[in-house]
Amino acid sequence: MSEKILLIDGHSILNRAFYGLPDLTNAEGRHTGAVYGFLNIMFRILEEEKPEYLTVAFDLSAPTFRHKRYEAYKGTRKPMPEELREQVPLIKEMLSAMGINIMSLEGYEADDLLGTVARRSEAKGMDVTILSGDRDLLQLATDKVLIRLPKTVRGKTTVENYHTAEVLEKYQVTPPQIIELKALMGDSSDNIPGIPGVGEKTATKMIVQFGSIENAHEHLEEVKPNKAKESLREHYDLAQLSKELATINTDSPLEFSYEKAKVENPYTPEAYELCKRLEFKNMLNRFDPATTADSSMELEFFTCNDLSGVEALFEKAAQKDQVGISVLADPDQVYTVGLVLDEKEIYQIPVGGLLTGDYLCGKLKALADSTVLCAMDIKSVLKHVSLDDPKKVFDAGVAAYLLNPLKSSYSHDDIAREYLDGMMLPSKEDLLGKTSLKKAWEEELEWLGNYACYQAFVPCMARKVLLEKLDETGMRKVYDEIELPLVFTLDSMEKWGISVKGEELKSYGEKLKVRIQELEKTIWQEAGEEFNINSPKQLGVILFEKLGLPGGKKTKTGYSTAADILDKLAPDYAIVKDILEYRQLTKLKSTYADGLGNVIGEDGRIHSTFNQTITATGRISSTDPNLQNIPVRMELGRLIRKVFVPEEGFVFLDADYSQIELRVLAHMSGDEKLIQAYREAEDIHRLTASQVFHVPLDEVTSLQRRNAKAVNFGIVYGISSFGLSQDLSITRKEAAAYIEKYFETYPKIKGFLDGLVKDGKEHGYVTTMFGRRRPVPELRSSNFMQRSFGERVAMNSPIQGTAADIIKIAMNHVYERMKKEGLRSRLVLQVHDELLIETKKEEIEEVSRILEEEMKGAADLAVELDVDMHQGDSWYEAK
DNA sequence: AAACTCACG
DNA sequence: ACGTACGTGAGTTTG
């Protein structure tokens, strides 16, 4: 096997990372996104290629031979944005810290150095890989020199690979001929002039036919089309100059030492420190604990597996102000309990013999009488330990979520790294891999025990700092008064679950099946062949190629067949109408009829999980199954709600807030006109239309009302004329006019929304009425698209988040009151602005009163919080 | 695993 | 000029 060298085009990879990926900033406000992206792609390629040598090439600012040859060269190039410029020294510092060789040479560009080292290495018989974002490098490809171009599509990075063959395949010319192409076409980003009137197509044709610019010039009369012929005749000199400029110099006088380019372990203590300073948390994972001085603290774990030892341990634990606990268990069995008294006393207690799960959970429950139990996830503890006082527990996951709701998980290793001075602990994955808890308990008790210890250790140690940060950020009240009590409320909802008629669900599914099969036949007939209607790819080919429907391309990978596209075609094509119906029915069958059927428990009820640490705004989410997206808008789908029923002797009471987000907007903005509107109107959209379009209330047309409603929604989503125009199928101009009229009508709204964006930019986050924060890093992005997204988020999150806060407060109060009053009714579902209560028939009146009082009284707004309430013998009827 | 589609607020 | 509504979760196909 020959040796391999990896050459990286420093600036171009940094550039790509900067423009293609979201920007990051650390606590010092330094921009670091591009550096982070650079490292990610570099390590990915390093792992794939495992080269013996590595070097990164950078341009210098001094003029190059190209400047001397051609004055305008790069003369008018756009200046680098400041956010990127400041990251150039940073990446160099990082590479140095990692002991990675950097090369640059006055008078030459990075390309030339890459080319030079590539040719030299090739001559030594090495394999060469060049990593760049710049297609110009393709001219260097050979059978031994691989050019790799990373591409980012929607935040996901893939890499295109080119040896000679791939260049030929994609561009129809050899790698050296890439230069000819570029010289003809020009390249505005490099200020290669090119010749007028020749684009990619013509240039390719010319080079395929003639091989070079010179040869084309010699056979000028054969050059087609005419325009290209004349252009080449007139600008031949320019083309030759361009060629010269575009040619990478592979023979620069670079002093290059393979010795210095040898790949060593990049995970040095210096690099670790720098990654920490830049807050590259995920990068820190890669570092070997041995190389990182400060994470080498050894934790000592003890096992306690005799009854008297456990008794003594719990007695000692009861004397502490706080203890860390963990309960590793499946729904029906406890495997191991972790108990941490302080950093020196960390215990695992495996279930076995006299130490049963019930016994240990009983001990934990009793322990809560005398100390505070700290856990990663209190709700999971509640499944086995029936605690009832939020004041006696601490939930590290919930606390960390409040401090940064944008994280994808809140595991013990993440929290240790972030809140315990960068402490690196093994993750669950590291300890158990994909082994189930049950299997680990049977076969790898040691590893399971370690996991239990870490799970108990981290929340115990991090409690202090997490609470301090909640205090500092003004979120202590949200934690104490909303989120922590909510853990108990959600646990209760999960335990109760909701009763579902399995048989009816089945027959509903079978009815759907009949119609689906009919439709399938019809569609195949209309298409003239059998194909998989569920495959957007196959469907796109049938509709837009075989049948030639208008519409054409839409997505990255092919034709879009989404409903909003098909809707437009449906009136004219029977097959489209059938496909839409087919889609609707298969969705209902697979996701709801079959999907829900599969998760009915032995008790005949569905027990969804309500996730408290998922959403960026503060809403809860529902999984396994998701009960927050049960159909309601279409009647056929809505029928599914008939299978959700209360148990014998109960009815459903369903209460939903009426336009809570708009009311929150009215309150937070303080716009008197909108507030007044809510005091008067029963139909806010109609009133909005009347005020915006200056017509009397009873003369508002249905179109005007629809438009006003869309604007109301748009405002809440972070208004943009484009978005509104899409929603209403009108031009952007018209949409902009609606928005302007709206802002004229409600003058404080605009100021309020602008203020949110301004505050967001200033602080880096926005807050709800109750102080919940959402960071909005996109607001500081130099990328227009990302920044615009940030602006919409800054406008929407405080509104959506405040509404989420309000209903959470209401849920807690309803739950606590029903409990205090000894009622047998129970909260079973929350759907963002709606609560569903399985109500004991004797308690209907009392529960109605509680619901109304607690929902309306959850927050004190300038407008009333209106609640619609219904009762029924199924969810369908209670809506 | 990612892309696409679609259900909800 | 860029190219979008805000927030979710799940099923299916495909590379």
Number of helices: 38
Strand content: 5-15%
Give me the CATH superfamily of the domain at 1-164 and 256-286. Answer: 5'-nuclease
How helical, in percent, are the residues? 40-55%
CATH fold-level assignment of the domain at 1-164 and 256-286: Rossmann fold
Average residue-wise pLDDT: 90
The appropriate CATH architecture of the domain at 1-164 and 256-286 is 3-Layer(aba) Sandwich
The separation of the N and C termini measures 71 Å
Q: What spatial form do the alpha-carbon principal axes imply?
A: globular
- Biggest sheet descriptor: 6 strands, mixed
Total beta strand runs: 23
The oligomeric status of these chains comes to single chain
Helix-and-strand structural type: alpha/beta
Runs with pLDDT <50, length 5+? 74-78, 292-296
CATH class designation of the domain at 1-164 and 256-286: Alpha Beta
Structure, explained:
Keywords: DNA damage, DNA repair, DNA replication, DNA-binding, DNA-directed DNA polymerase, Exonuclease, Hydrolase, Nuclease, Nucleotidyltransferase, Transferase. Pfam families: 5_3_exonuc, 5_3_exonuc_N, DNA_pol_A. It is an enzyme of class 2 (transferase). One of its GO terms (molecular function) is DNA-directed DNA polymerase activity. Helices cover 50% and strands 13% of the residues. A hairpin with a 2-residue loop joins β5 and β6. The termini are far apart. The protein is globular and about 100 Å long. Among the domains are: 1-164 and 256-286, 5'-nuclease (Rossmann fold), CATH 3.40.50.1010; 176-248, 5' to 3' exonuclease, C-terminal subdomain (DNA polymerase, domain 1); 294-472, Nucleotidyltransferase, domain 5 (2-Layer Sandwich); 499-606, Taq DNA Polymerase, Chain T, domain 4 (Up-down Bundle), CATH 1.20.1060. Residues 74-78 and 292-296 have low confidence and may be disordered. The chain contains 38 helices and 23 strands. The structure holds a DNA duplex (9 and 15 nucleotides).
